[in-house]
């Protein structure tokens, strides 16, 4: 486990003032050890840092998309291949921006769940999500079973 910097610890205290108390209520699956404060602090720090990174990247991607849309007719000429290539590039950039927005929203939701003390609880079943799942994917809101049921629909 990595040691958290003083700056990171200060950010955690500011964003999650009741984390030491709330971590005791985070559920675990049968056979798992209870959450430790350090484990949740690491996940929370990752989510906060990732949120900042995504916001920076989204700002750049939004600007690139705006430039691409603004200049979409420049230099294309009358060639259909040029139009198609430009359309494909715009579509790829738009997909990237939308995926980034979705990831940022998932990250914000996970941070909010930690803040509210509801982290680690499946939003459908109310059962524990599982430490291993959250450590692998800290944005998870569903248990493996609930996610599998959702994907089968």
Automatic annotation (TrEMBL):
It holds the Pfam family zf-dskA_traR. Residues 37-71 form a coiled coil. A zinc finger (dksA C4-type) spans 122-146. Residues 117-152 form the Zinc finger DksA/TraR C4-type domain. Keywords: Coiled coil, Metal-binding, Zinc, Zinc-finger. InterPro entries: DnaK_N, Znf_DskA_TraR, Znf_DskA_TraR_CS. This is TraR/DksA C4-type zinc finger protein. It comes from Isoptericola peretonis. The lineage of its organism: Bacteria, Bacillati, Actinomycetota, Actinomycetes, Micrococcales.
